[in-house]
Design brief:
- This is DUF6463 family protein.
- InterPro entries: DUF6463.
- It comes from Spartinivicinus poritis.
- The chain is mainly alpha-helical.
- About 75% of the residues lie in helices and about 0% in strands.
- The chain has one domain.
- It is elongated.
- It starts with a helix and ends with a helix.
């Protein structure tokens, strides 16, 4: 069974972007209206940018993993660890957040590694 790990991360990235555009719409709109150049100063605008941009990064990572899955390239297990540890640290700092979502694809990366190890035996 294919878990579509890349697709899971793409969806999380899209949700992150959508939520960022809604949650930070006033700050982001003000930045756009000011022409974007050097408009990221201040705590609120910094949060607005980095939260939304994190969704773009997740989308890119998900796209890469999706391509790896299509080409039957094994996803490195260390990526599962990075996602899991990053999520756990994020959950410690922000317990009421979406960090728990990234535990799902990290679990499936670990599961796929176990499947590869069994198939290689």
């Amino acid at each position: 069974m294919k878990e579509h790990i890349g697709f899971q991360i793409i969806v999380i990235g899209i949700l992150h972007i959508i939520f960022g555009l809604i949650r930070f719409r006033e700050d982001l709109l003000a930045m756009v209206m000011e022409g974007l150049l050097a408009t990221g100063g201040g705590e609120a605008r910094g949060w607005a940018f980095w939260f939304t941009f994190a969704g773009v990064l997740l989308f890119m990572i998900g796209s890469l993993i999706s391509t790896m899955e299509e080409k039957n390239i094994t996803i490195p297990v260390h990526l599962g660890w990075v996602l899991a540890i990053g999520s756990i640290v994020g959950l410690i700092i922000f317990p009421v957040s979406g960090f728990w979502l990234m535990l799902v694809p990290s679990y499936f990366i670990f599961k796929s590694q176990k499947a590869v190890a069994v198939n290689d035996a």
